[in-house]
Amino acid sequence: MNGKLFATIRRTAGLTQKQMGDRLRVSRQLIQKIEAEERSIQPYIITRLYIEFGAEFIEEVRGISVKYLAAAE
After folding, report:
1. Contacts of 59 (CB under 8 A, 6+ apart)
2. Which residue range is the domain that position 67 belongs to?
3. How many domains does the chain have?
4. What's CA 11's distance to the chain center, in Å?
5. Which of 33, 35, 36, 72 is a good FRET partner for 16, with 20 to 30 A between their CA atoms?
6. Where are the alpha helices (DSSP H) in the chain?
7. Cα(25)–Cα(38) distance, rounded to whole angstroms?
8. CATH code of the domain containing 67
9. Using one digit for the tens of pLDDT, what is the confidence trace for 11-36?
10. Over the stretch 32-52, which tens digit does the pLDDT of each residue have?
């Protein structure tokens, strides 16, 4: 998972960076750095992401993102 997909998941869920940080129990600044790809996404954050949002939601967003990017090429 990269920062762009992470940001897409957050936006699709309708959350601000602060709200996402609160749900994942990390700072808004870390969310910002992950989305800007200045920091890698640690496994514990991915685990929390799947617990908070569910695999089905994340995989649906991922599938939409892949289709969108393929159509843009």
Report:
1. none
2. 3-72
3. 1
4. 8
5. 72
6. 3-12, 17-24, 28-35, 43-53, 55-72
7. 19
8. 1.10.260.40
9. 999 999 999 999 999 999 999 999 99
10. 999 999 999 999 999 999 999
